TrEMBL record:
Transmembrane segments: none annotated. This is Ubiquitin-like domain-containing CTD phosphatase 1. GO terms for biological process: regulation of proteasome assembly. Its EC number is 3.1.3.16. It comes from Bos mutus grunniens. Keywords: Hydrolase, Magnesium, Metal-binding, Nucleus, Protein phosphatase. Pfam families: NIF, ubiquitin. Dephosphorylates 26S nuclear proteasomes, thereby decreasing their proteolytic activity. Recruited to the 19S regulatory particle of the 26S proteasome through its interaction with 19S component PSMD2/RPN1. Once recruited, dephosphorylates 19S component PSMC2/RPT1 which impairs PSMC2 ATPase activity and disrupts 26S proteasome assembly. Has also been reported to stimulate the proteolytic activity of the 26S proteasome. One of its GO terms (cellular component) is nucleoplasm. It is an enzyme of class 3 (hydrolase). Residues 155-316 form the FCP1 homology domain. Gene3D superfamilies: HAD superfamily/HAD-like, Phosphatidylinositol 3-kinase Catalytic Subunit, Chain A, domain 1.
Length: 340
């Protein structure tokens, strides 16, 4: 009887310990502009189990899912790897890329209008004096004072500044693909290698720094031996400005960079590429609105935007002052220079 009693205690303890070892490992997955909470998986479940669960939440088949940031010993985690081996902290956020099967027919069709592109506007048509408004300049001053920039590589004396957006500028973050490299804009590394000869390169995306870092690693930008990124900025470095017709909008004020690195960069030597023109509202003369890179699997063999802009950057690098340039007509400028 006593033996049965102690065996009962033993098995109850063993069951309890087994339960503890299989406690839920909460994970947050970001996909399609939304966040999904995964709370029913444990450390004993595998990456494939996670993908299967994500299928129930998003409708994306496991074989079409690409999970950024899940790595073991520096390599992407295979489907049979247990989640416990990934050493994830509770509520770790990861990004998923992939397209629903029922959406593939739409993907193969003409590129849809992106919401941001549709809602964008030509800043020259929007007669709004926002650059010198006191409240906006105060916001920039606060960003200069409070926003912390992690310098990855020191600014170089005598170099001009190239500021680059990420989504739809360098990377199509919504099309279906097996790897992030398949979503990379054509000629990206050649473009950055050439630009680095004359420009310090800064990445500025309207997202969280974690996602920017993940994308740069996935694309091989942060580890490329042929060029270096000076630093990266996220949405926290942006400010909100008011326009009479459009109301409140978020913009990327280059004054934040100029204020922090005035000894290196200014209006005279800075150019910014972005597919959203309103991001230039505080510094319209320094912005070049790049054509958005979408439907990567259809367009990666024919998109030559970065190839042509490589030549444009090389031409204007010869100038001491960018203030006389109108980047809206960059193709006309390049054609004229090449025709001489």
């Amino acid at each position: 009887m006593y033996m049965v009693f102690f065996l009962g205690i033993f098995f109850r303890r063993k069951t309890a310990l087994s339960y503890v070892s299989k406690m839920a490992l909460p994970i947050i997955v970001k996909w399609g502009g939304q966040e999904y909470s995964v709370t029913t998986l444990s450390e004993d479940d595998t990456v494939l189990d996670l993908k299967q669960f994500l299928k129930t939440l998003t409708g994306v088949l496991p074989e079409r899912q690409k999970l950024l940031g899940l790595k073991v010993k520096g390599k992407p985690a295979e489907n049979d790897v247990k989640l416990g081996a990934l050493k994830l902290k509770p509520n770790t956020k990861i990004m998923m890329m992939g397209t629903r099967e029922e959406s593939l027919e739409d993907v193969l069709g003409p590129p849809p209008d992106n919401d941001d592109v549709v809602n964008d506007f030509d800043i020259e048509d929007e007669v709004v004096e926002v650059e010198n408004r006191e409240e906006n300049l105060l916001k920039i001053s606060r960003r200069v004072k409070e926003y912390k920039v992690e310098i990855l590589n020191p600014p170089r004396e005598g170099k001009k500044l190239l500021v680059l957006d990420v989504d739809y500028t360098l990377f199509d973050h919504r099309s279906c693909a097996e790897t992030g490299v398949e979503l990379m804009r054509p000629y990206l590394h050649e473009f950055l290698t050439s630009a680095y000869e004359d420009y310090d390169i800064v990445i500025w995306s309207a997202t969280n720094m974690k996602w920017i870092e993940a994308k740069m690693k996935e694309l091989g930008v942060s580890t490329n031996a042929n060029y270096k990124i000076t630093f990266m900025l996220d949405s926290a470095a942006m400010i909100t400005v008011h326009t009479p017709r459009r109301g409140l909008i978020d913009v990327k004020p280059l004054g934040v960079i100029w204020g922090k690195f005035s000894e290196f960069y200014s209006k005279k030597n800075t150019i910014m590429f972005d597919d959203i023109g309103r991001n230039f509202l505080m510094n319209p003369q320094n912005g070049l609105k790049i054509r958005p890179f979408m439907k990567a699997h259809l367009n990666r063999d024919k998109d030559k935007e970065l190839l042509k802009l490589t030549q444009y950057l090389k031409e204007i690098a010869k100038l001491d002052d960018f203030l006389d340039l109108n980047h809206k007509y960059w193709e006309r400028y390049l054609s004229k220079k090449q025709g001489q």
